[in-house]
Amino acid sequence: MDALYLQAPFTRILLEEGFEAVTVLKQENRDLYQDVDGLLKLIKTPVVRIEDSKKIQQWDFENLSSWPQLKRSVRVVCSKEETIKRIRKARNGNMRRSSPTGVG
């Protein structure tokens, strides 16, 4: 769901009809965003996965009540992705990055 539609009455109707809502929190002035931002500063150890050339860190917060207008708790999943790049050292001592295909 686009953040434009992230209003409690609209989201409540979706949930009452049996749908699930997924959105990206972009507005830093929202209470939910601020609460999750504070939790991220307290919790230093995320779940870490390596997939292909990406390091993915994830935090999962359940039962947050930071959106009282919704009249139910929410779950927030945060993720941070980093692309892993190998750096190869040539025989002459110069450093060079490997290309995405591994040919360098």
How much helical structure, as a percent, in the residues? 10-25%
Structure summary, number of beta strands = 5
The structural class is alpha+beta
Strand order of the largest sheet: 1-2-3
The end-to-end distance, rounded to whole angstroms, is 41 Å
Query: Would you tell me the overall average pLDDT?
Result: 81
Number of helices: 2
Give the biggest sheet: 3 strands, antiparallel
Rg value: 20 Å
Number of domains: 1
Helix-strand sequence: HHEEEEE
Q: Based on Cα principal axes, name the global outline.
A: elongated
Beta-strand fraction estimate = 25-35%
Topology:
Elements: H1 8-16, H2 31-42, E1 47-51, E2 54-64, E3 74-83, E4 87-89, E5 95-97
Antiparallel strand pairs: 1-2, 2-3, 4-5
Quickly list its features.
single chain, alpha+beta, three-stranded antiparallel beta sheet, two-stranded antiparallel sheet, 20% helix, disordered C terminus
Task: Please describe what this structure looks like.
The chain is of the alpha+beta class and 104 residues long. It has one domain (3-84). It is built from two helices and five strands. Strands 1-2-3 form a three-stranded antiparallel sheet, covered by helices on one side. It is elongated.
In short:
The chain contains two helices and five strands.
